[in-house]
């Protein structure tokens, strides 16, 4: 087994582990966001009840309105972060799919020319088309992230 193949295999495993760790971190953060959403919902319900009662002084009402505004800002921020994380999850899935297609394509390309049958050439073309499709999907995700970033500015 040549050294360069061992190196490629090791790097592929390392990249796969990085994607796995990143996916786990995203999953944990999504769970934290869900818990925070539930807490914010409870706060929102309390604030809404207080605002409907309107039995307080103007200063109390102003405080309640400010609390409601802060609640909405926090919720909007969490929704934006959740959206970013979901895009990152999709990007990780596409990255993994691209890696698998790349490995499959390398296997087809490394076959001895004398052993290549027409089916292998067709399979190679299908893999190339799938690879192109995955790259285009990743490009769309990056474009969406860039648009979102520009809108936030």
TrEMBL record:
Protein name per the record: MICA1 monooxygenase
Organism: Ardeotis kori
UniProt GO MF annotations: monooxygenase activity
Top-level lineage group: Eukaryota
Coiled coil: 23-50
Keywords: Coiled coil, Membrane, Monooxygenase, Oxidoreductase
Record has Coiled coil as a keyword: yes
Domain BMERB: 13-153
PANTHER family: [F-ACTIN]-MONOOXYGENASE MICAL1, CALPONIN HOMOLOGY DOMAIN-CONTAINING PROTEIN DDB_G0272472-RELATED
Compartments in which it is found: Membrane
InterPro entries on file: bMERB_dom, F-actin_Monoox_Mical
